[in-house]
Amino acid sequence: MKTRRLGKTGYDVSEIGLGCWQLGGDFGPVGDDTATAILDAAEAAGINFWDTADVYGGGLSESRIGAHAKPGIRIATKVGRDSSLFPNAYSFEGIRESLLGSARRLGVQTLDLAQLHCVPTEVLREGAIFGWMDQLRAEGVVRHWGASVETIEEGLICLDQPGCATLQIIFNLFRQDAATTLLPKAAERDVGIIVRLPLASGLLSGKYDKTTRFEASDHRNYNRDGAAFSVGETFSGIPFERGVELVQELRGLAPEALPMSQFALRWILDHPQVSTVIAGVSKPEQIADNVAASEHKSLFPALMTQLGEWYEREVKPEIRGGV
């Protein structure tokens, strides 16, 4: 597995990481045996960066990782979406208590990386929360802190904070704006970029059609129009049926014999400012498919330009929830 430097953390992380939202059961039930098999497969493949959050399954994802992780695995968690804090009850003590709970579940004394978890824009603008994270780092609760954001505006606010070490963003073939507005500034500030939703909640895997149905407990069912949280977090804000159509258009642009999922991941990896792509899986056998994208040769520059033009023309007007 190839590695990249995660910004000013100095961590060398696998360029394909593991997104652990699924381990909390928020994409449908995942049994203990399956969760263990996923983590085993990730470790065997050399994936040494695992991303979770305190609210994934109400702490279940963190607990499963804590029971499994071994030395050499960098664990990133998140704070700020628990109902004790979100949307307007943020405090230093509240964040500290949440992070200490994450540390207990993960079985560590100090968290490798704690990320503000889609904190409301107005809280980021006010700015006190960044000072609290600096203080928690000074106390040894966290080694480094970053932020997981929903929009470019939020990302730019965070990049202005000297203590911000990483930025987690939605970035994929259906959400390309960060390539010109955010990534260059992150590189200037030595902030590591973590990409989430690389397959737009699975749409870019090419496995769905307009008749596909998801379980009631799956956010791709209950949040496809933003009923529970930001619509941009589900299918990258693209209406599902339109997304299926757009994937069909992409098939005509992808290199021959390159699976859609690997095409989508390779496009992200061809942006050198990206440190790691956290691809979630619900089955251990999906790990190998994700890792193969790291081994594939880069896409031709002319194709990258064509994909950018296609995005501006066909995709960007369809996005809901902001970019």
Strand fraction band? 5-15%
Averaged pLDDT: 96
Q: Could you please say which CATH topology applies here? A: TIM Barrel
CATH superfamily label: NADP-dependent oxidoreductase domain
The coarse overall form would be: globular
Mind summarizing the main beta sheet?
8 strands, parallel, barrel
> If strands are numbered along the chain, what order do they take across the biggest sheet?
3-4-5-6-7-8-9-10
| Rg from alpha-carbon coordinates | 18 Å
- Total number of domains: 1
Instruction: Indicate the CATH architecture.
Output: Alpha-Beta Barrel
Based on secondary structure, the structural category is alpha/beta
CATH class: Alpha Beta
Structure summary, number of beta strands: 10
Written as H for each helix and E for each strand, in order along the chain, the element string is EEEHEHEHEHHEHEHHEHHHEHH
Can you describe what's shown?
- Keywords: Oxidoreductase.
- Its EC number is 1.1.1.-.
- It comes from Devosia equisanguinis.
- GO terms for molecular function: oxidoreductase activity.
- It is an enzyme of class 1 (oxidoreductase).
- There is one protein chain.
- The longest helix has 15 residues, at about 90-105.
- The chain is built from 13 helices and ten strands.
- The protein is globular.
- The model has no long low-confidence stretch (mean pLDDT about 95).
- The strands form two sheets. The protein has an eight-stranded parallel β-barrel, surrounded by five helices. Strands 1-2 form a two-stranded antiparallel ribbon.
- Strand 5 (about 75-80), helix 3 and strand 6 (about 115) form a beta-alpha-beta unit.
- It has one domain (about 5-320): NADP-dependent oxidoreductase domain (TIM Barrel, Alpha-Beta Barrel), CATH 3.20.20.
- Helix content is about 40%, strand content about 15%.
- It has helices at about 30-45, 60-65, 90-105, 120-125, 130-140, 150-160, 180, 185-190, 220, 240-250, 260-270, 285-295, 300-315; strands at about 5, 10-15, 15-20, 50, 75-80, 115, 145-150, 165-170, 190-195, 275-280.
- With about 325 residues, the chain is an alpha/beta fold.
